[in-house]
Amino acid sequence: MKVPQAQPIMNEKMIEAAANALRNERLTLGESVNKFEDAFAKMCGVEHAIALSSGTAALQLGLQAAGVRTGDKIVTPAMSFVATSNSFVVFGGEPVFTDVDYVDFNLDPAKLKFEKGTKAVIPVHLYGHPARMDEINQAAAKHGAIVVEDACQAHGAKYKGKRAGALGLMGCFSFYPTKNMHVGGDGGMVTTNDAKIADLVKRLRHCGRKGQYEHDLIGYTARLNSANAAVGIEQLKMLPQWNEKRRAVAAKYDSMLEGVGDLRLPPKPSKDFEPVYHQYAILTKKRNELKKHLESKNVGVGVHYDIPIHLQPVYRDMYGFKEGMLPITERLCKEVLTLPMFVDITDEQIKYVVESFKEFYA
Known about the structure:
- It contains eleven helices and twelve strands.
- The protein starts with 11 loop residues before the first helix and ends with a helix.
- Strand 2 (73-77), helix 4 (83-89) and strand 3 (94-98) form a beta-alpha-beta unit.
- Helix 3 packs across helix 4.
- It has helices at residues 12-24, 31-44, 55-65, 83-89, 133-142, 195-205, 226-257, 287-296, 313-319, 327-335, 347-361; strands spanning 48-52, 73-77, 94-98, 118-121, 146-150, 158-159, 162-163, 170-174, 188-192, 273-274, 280-283, 336-339.
- It has 362 residues and is of the alpha/beta class.
């Protein structure tokens, strides 16, 4: 048996929606983009959603629209994909990496430090599990910093009854093909209740336009294609059902892997936290050996992430970051392993994955 780590869905209805947009709409910023934005804003429970070309663009343009500038410091975890910090380093923002909680993998509010010049905090809802936003928001407000959610792995997740994307000044999403929902390629979204920020992001994505021939901002080309938005509309309709399926898969893993070897399983849903399991991440001190065994059994697994951002070669070169700066993050990157997690995974596949784990520990 072969079990992939991820398996994006693209059905005939989605393909036809894209084809219809290609036949009948403007190819960029067409009618489907407006409809996708409206539907996504409604899902998140916010006033505005602005569709973009990627999650990275969402973070970059969102931060710039909120007034983050060259030389400003941005606090964020290094336990994330490199795009989290690339999004502001590219325009001269300075990363201040903070350590995470070993239990939920997310930014630890108790370890937040606000240096002079700190303008923003970017908590990451890693693997689709919401960060502890009340504590983060309170700490940021005390120091005059804005909070921008990196919700690129958390479509539909809830914290204390509110959706990811509605928990800070703005939320930023990615629609890369392996996410809980995608747009048939790259795409992103900024969500916010701030009308001024929404307007600025719209203009920044479209070359800084004020009117058809007038530009009063240095903008970018970061629009979402209409065909991609049409796919996103169809995917968004399925998101609640798909997230429920992911939680059901996670519950089966929880039940079947409990007590196996030295595995530490991910945090479970609770009254305050409703995760969406973009990844099902386990910890083991035998990560590399276990990974090799599972791959020999044709079980697709991932390492999210093998190298924390602060130890990526480019960040070492630019900032002189070294091992030992973030002990919990660095430990997690040596122990984390992500299991097959996708909507259409079968009970037989789940059973095979679990049996492969038990075989390793036998």
